[in-house]
Design goal:
By secondary structure, the chain is mainly α. It has two domains: 16-45; 48-219, no CATH class. The protein contains eight helices and three strands, in the order H-H-H-H-H-H-H-H-E-E-E. It has helices at residues 15-42, 48-60, 67-82, 92-97, 103-110, 121-132, 136-151, 153-163; strands at residues 168-170, 180-184, 193-196. A three-stranded antiparallel sheet has the order 1-3-2, with helices on one face. It starts with 14 loop residues before the first helix and ends in a 26-residue tail after the last strand. 34% of the residues are buried. Residues 1-13 have low confidence and may be disordered.
Amino acid sequence: MRNILDFGQFESLNEENVASFAAAGAASVGSSIIAKANRFKKKNVIDPLEYWTLITIIACENFPDNKQGMSDTAQSIYNRLAVPKQPYGKTIKEIVLAKGQYQPVSVGTSKGADWKSINTKEKSISVYMKTKGVDKTAATTAINNAIQAQKDSKLGKEAGKHVQSRTEFLANKPRSGGAVSPVERTSPKTNNAFFWNYAGKTNFYAKKDTNPKDKPDNVSQA
């Protein structure tokens, strides 16, 4: 075994070899830096408007302690975003603010809640307060629960099983003839009814695709 201090082993190295090794080393270091940067970027792609609008609506559409219901609601929104040609909207914010879609938006707006620019936790709490008519303590609790619900992988997995690719939901079982395969949870505190309807009000797209859609990267917590 050659002694690691035997400098004679490097006699065959000329300037060209040294330059080549140096370049290779720099490339390796550069690749490592890029890889780390990409991993960092992937963990920090959250879009504040998308994320906090989502958190606010899933909080407003459920009881303040109903984390599973919040996760279920989030799943239906991911499903809407994934519908071909995106008839519900091209972003989560567009989906939530679409006319006639989410009652808390219209109710809150009439009370002075600014649903169009929810990009921080404080704004989310403020919009919840005005929409629900509660104090800051109650609003903060609801928003914190929504944050946990949207982040919790177990709740998300259960939401996917329950909601599947359904895009519509109501607080009670729908009476409309257009509602397809409604599902409800048994607990009175998780009483949202989810169902398939008509994407863009023209095509019942879900017959061939009942798989729950993935959480978008721009609202995924690291």
